[in-house]
Design a protein that fits this description.
Blueprint lengths: L7 E6 L3 H14 L3 E7 H9 L6 E7 L1 H10 L9 E7 L5 E6 L1 H6 L7 H20 L1
Antiparallel strand pairs: 1-5, 2-3, 3-4, 4-5
Helix pairs in contact: 1-5
């Protein structure tokens, strides 16, 4: 059995995929995050490899003030931006929403000056997931 690595925070929603994508986008906006990029993994796999894949999207979420603070602290932190959010069909039904944990991501660089940015981003993203669970 393969153990899942814990890169982030996640929730399982008993709603259709499209509804979950809409809800996460709205919840992110409420916490100051915009979606800069949208990668439709299912469509990409079909186009590039001619294989079928479940509905799966990667959203690149950015909170501009936090990104600015991080980038002015350390230019190379841009390699870890934006915060990725994934939404996909769960095998057991419903939809999974998972968000990268900024504390885990920024601890890779070991720059303590980034800790406050990571902590604030993580707190905001935890509130995003809590809003999804409460809906």
């Amino acid at each position: 059995m393969t153990q899942m690595v814990d890169y982030g925070m996640r929730t399982h929603l008993d709603v259709p995929y499209e509804t979950a994508v809409e809800r996460i986008t709205v919840a992110l906006k409420a916490e100051g995050f915009g979606v800069l990029t949208t990668i439709d993994v299912k469509a990409t796999m079909k186009q590039k490899l001619d294989v079928e894949f479940k509905r799966y999207v990667i959203l690149g979420a950015c909170n501009p003030p936090l990104a600015y603070r991080a980038l002015t602290t350390e230019a190379e932190v841009g390699l870890l931006l934006p915060c990725n959010v994934i939404v996909y069909d769960a095998e057991e039904g419903g939809t999974v929403v998972s968000i990268v944990d900024p504390i885990v991501m920024l601890s890779a660089g070991l720059n303590p000056a980034l800790n406050s940015v990571a902590e604030e981003a993580a707190a905001r993203l935890r509130r995003v997931l809590a809003a999804l669970d409460a809906a």
